[in-house]
Amino acid sequence: MNREYFKSLSQRHKGHGEHGEFKFFIPPCTLCPPCLRESLFLLLAIAAAALSFTACTSKQALEDPPIITSATHQHTLYNGRGQPIEAVAAKEGAPPPVITYFRSEEDLHADRNGSSEPPAEVGNYYVRIRRPAGNGYRAGKDVTVEFHIQKAMVTITAKERQEFAYDGSPKSVVFSVDRNVEPGVAYYHAPSHARSTMYGFPLSEPPTERGVYRADISWAGDAHHMGASKTVELIIR
Question: How far is CA 39 from CA 10, 24, 48, in A?
Fold first, then answer.
């Protein structure tokens, strides 16, 4: 390519701007017009690829953090095992929440003495639910839950009226308990002029003689279980 070609090309791209005459300057080289066309096509292809990349990147924008489905106050009963709170990310594919248990609100705010292990003992706990980033989701603000493990209820089951035939041996009331506890039983001789629901004088052991008696089955409770009681009328004929 000669200088006359670049001269004519420069003149064809001459123009005027607000600062006077200007030219699109194309430095002299050995490229021929077909090569220039190929260079322009290459620049257009690069620009199209850049636009395509930008569009693809916008499609991959991070989504809002998932909502955590969890009541802010949760209660359960002692069962001797670790009991986790209920917390589920509302969006499928979102990273699982990170749950940490604290024994006090002060520990929660100070981020100390936390444990990932669900608690088993009766008491009040403060739980932090953290929503991490990942799988196309942004990280979310922490969620706090108050978690209470209450004493387990104890149910004593027994027939309210139990009759036995006299045979000279002590007669004990029959009952069952739904927990691994051992209630005590106190026996009273019912006064002959009153119903057995009234207290008479206490007995040191289950009754043997014929008569009407009252048996009080009771459990005072402990660190893990509530108290319970049941009254039975015991008759020996």
Answer: 18, 16, 14
- Distance CA(15)–CA(117), nearest Å, equals 77
pLDDT tens digits for 66-114? 788 888 999 999 999 999 999 888 888 888 899 999 999 999 999 999 9
DSSP single-letter state for residue 102: E
Nearest to 236 by CA among 178, 158, 185, 167: 167
Tokens for 159, please give them.
Answer: 């027939």
Beta-bridge mates of residue 163 = 235
Residue 153 has what DSSP assignment?
Answer: P
Task: Outline where the chain has alpha helix (H).
Answer: 3-12, 33-59, 105-110
Q: Which two tokens stand for residue 15?
A: 């123009």
